[in-house]
Amino acid sequence: MSLAGRVAVVTGAASGIGRAIARALAREGAKVAIADLNEAGGAAVAREIETDGGTARAWRADVTDAAAVEALVAQVVKQWGGVHVLVNNAGWDKPMPFVETTPDFWDRILALNLRGPIACTHAVLPHMIRQAHGKIVSIASDAGRVGSSGEAVYSAAKGGIIAFTKTIAREVARHRINVNCVCPGPSDTPLFQNEFARVSPKLAASLTRVIPWGRLGTPEDVAPAVVFLASDEAGFITGQTLSVSGGLTMA
Ligand SMILES: NC(=O)c1ccc[n+]([C@@H]2O[C@H](COP(=O)([O-])OP(=O)(O)OC[C@H]3O[C@@H](n4cnc5c(N)ncnc54)[C@H](O)[C@@H]3O)[C@@H](O)[C@H]2O)c1
After folding, report:
1. Quick check: is 29 in a domain?
2. Rounded-to-integer distance, Cα 218 and Cα 121, Å
3. What is the pTM of this model?
4. Which of 141, 147, 167, 226 fits a 20 to 30 Å CA distance from 246?
């Protein structure tokens, strides 16, 4: 699957699943813009890609700031002449019973996990429509398909992304822009280690136990699905939701 000549923006690519996606897209020949709050981490991933012979550049970006996202996309287009792939990957959660959550927490979760992908999609679409070509892949979650105790607002955001994806896919199909979701299940990343495994080893163990494949996912499990959906080979696939979760959900 060649992505030679393509320009990809991957949000949250300084760590975990986003890092693996950025590296995998670069291996297929895409120029990768790493857009992350963590500038040093993003620069380190860009160096890894360059060391492997790829092309990448890190931009400090906060996906909750729509104006900043628009400016970032404009810079990427100026530098590399277009934007062909957007991977909405930046996300975060802190599991806790819904009754213990606060409105400030809801706002934070929704701003990052729902409004962020909406802002990034809004920023790239005019360029993709002009090109009559584009691939948008959003990293949702199995939590958004079947629910996940302790993750009510996050699940609402991820379910929202799945519904948003379907609607945008319908709106832009005539411009030959594919819009899809990939849903990881529990995956071994810094997010999972910091917010799940370290806080509640029991919760992490029970989440692992219910995965038919018998282990957590890895970033490298998720990345190939994203590369496929970003490729021309997936040109007739749009509005779909693909779980990469060892059989956790089969809906
Ligand atoms: N790890 C899991 O178990 C799991 C399961 C299902 C879905 N997901 C989803 O996968 C995606 C990646 O998660 P991960 O586990 O790799 O997390 P991670 O914490 O390892 O990486 C997330 C990255 O996003 C960046 N980020 C956070 N806020 C940002 C912002 N406002 N703007 C730009 N970048 C920001 C962080 O700096 C970090 O580099 C998220 O959308 C997450 O919800 C993860």
Report:
1. yes
2. 26
3. 0.98
4. 167
